[in-house]
Amino acid sequence: MEKTAGKAENRVRSNGSKVENSPQVEAVESRNDEWYSVLKLGEQSVKFKLDTGAKCNVLPKYLFNKITEGQLEVRKSNAKLISYSGDYVQTMGQAIIECLYRHIKHNLLFYIANIE
């Protein structure tokens, strides 16, 4: 287990509520130059691959549906996501999902990828 630290980047929406882009990460698992951390989304523990060069958080549609059970709204987004390889990633939109990391709740913005 490796340790690292960083600051959360926060934004404030027009209605005054705060959205956290990323919580502070204090412990990650490293394998073959790939870094992972586990967040709890709803009742599901999800192992996320960390990418320090990524500009956003992405969830595949099947995982979003499993976690939210249709109880969370996906808002349309004009964002164009491009993968590291240069391919476009089609999205259904974006959603703010409450996540638990080290017993602390964070509201994180995720783009929902239109892939199964």
Walk me through what this model shows.
The protein has 116 residues and is mostly beta strands. It has one domain (2-113): Acid Proteases (Cathepsin D, subunit A, domain 1, Beta Barrel). The chain is built from one helix and eleven strands; from the N terminus they run βββββββαββββ. The strands form three sheets. Strands 1, 4, 5, 6, 7, 10 and 11 form a seven-stranded mixed beta sheet that branches. A two-stranded antiparallel sheet has the order 2-3. The longest helix has 8 residues, at 61-68. The chain is globular, with a radius of gyration of 14 Å. Residues 1-15 have low confidence and may be disordered.
